[in-house]
Amino acid sequence: MVYSLFYRRPPHVDSARASINGSEKTKSVDQGSITSRSSGVTSGIPDALSFDRIITGGTCPPCTARDFMNYLIYIEHAAENLQFFLWYRDYTRRFSELPPSERALAPVWTTEQAEADAQAPSAPKQQVSAETAAVFKGTDFAPTVASVVELKPNPFNTPPRTPNGERESEAPSEKDWSENGSTLHSHTNKSFQSKAAGAFESADLKWQPFTIQPFREEVSRIIAIYIADGAPRQLNLSAKERSKLLHALANTTHPSAFAKVVHTVEWSLRHQAHPNFIRWTIYNGNRPRVIFARGLGVFGIVGGILSAVLITLSNASRGYRVLSAVGFMIGVATLICAWKGMCIVLHGMHHRHLRPWELFAEDDDDSSFDMGKGSFDTMGSTNSYEDEPWIAKYEKRNILRKILDREVWIQEPALRQIQDTIFLQAMGGGLIITAISVGIFCAFPAGNFF
């Protein structure tokens, strides 16, 4: 629906998305096809633009963590990987800052322990009476139908208290925890706890909602958002990986429980998303501008050929045929740069076009480009952007206005250096092709037709 006339998805994005998230979205706001497919390595990327420097805030626009996140949302449609990775880094830091007494409640999860638990026979599901089921009816802890049995009443049994839907006690580390520093609403907690309970139940695991382990409530939210089947930001995990992760989280909230999943997510970010992002940032113009630059390059080459042919057919001396080199040189260099996604005019000023979502960011009061909001909210909703107001605004812009979109200076020195290298390569290629072309025309005798 959006940008079908002016934007096309890079061929590598489809394959990367299929391997990362298992499914593709049909809409994209890409600004040109990346010329080469990611090979899964980061060779050729300078250290100044490494993955770690971008994540830790050591780069300038347009290569910051915010730009990386926007690329994953609007281009690769795989932002959940980076969102989960950033949450895990922060979670590991906060867990390490806990008092030793709290950390001891969540033991380290090791491979040996996982294998031992996997070989141990599973405990039978606990059956409850119909009276107990009636008490918990309508709450997050209501037992399934299969576990409800008719038992004889015990006259000496103390009747259970009616639950009020609130947790009676919380771990000290998560009493005041929330994504934005505010207390979580009880109905929101119930929703996440219910989804987390469903995820554990689907994996045939026993869930302990009253655990005193630190950050148990936060881990339940992460399960509901990233791990559970059908989660709004579901990671692309196999059934075996998801089952192993849930098995670990059912026993501990230690960061080591996420180790294998984080390794997979980090590998995808480092070896697929990051190289693709760096290649994409080389583009200094939007797609209409790049197509326009390619047209100018073809026009320059055609002009050089026509001038060389006309001078060759005339009675002018051979030296005048060298004038066609101007058209060849400008046309070939412009075409090579445009083929790599660069506009030679914008590069001369070290400028770039603002991305479509950046053009109207200042106009939106609820802009999602601030750290801790929108895409950087690890506990947020889905990463769908089809309803964002800038899409309709950008769609109304005519083609000429898109070609002449607002420009901004490229602040990252390493990116400017990469673009300078491409520009020099284009000039060198243009010089070689121009010399060969002019030499061929100079070899012909004069036509003397006019």
Automatic annotation (TrEMBL):
Residues passing through the membrane, by range: 291-313, 325-346, 422-446
InterPro entries found in the cross-reference section: RGS, RGS_sf, RGS_subdomain_2
Ranges where the RGS domain occurs: 214-284
Disordered: region residues: 17-42, 150-189
UniProt keyword Transmembrane helix, yes or no: yes
Biased segments, Polar residues type: 18-42, 179-189
Assigned keywords, A-Z: Membrane, Transmembrane, Transmembrane helix
Keyword Cell membrane: no
Biased composition regions of type Basic and acidic residues, renumbered to the chain: 164-178
Domain of life per record: Eukaryota
The protein's name: RGS domain-containing protein
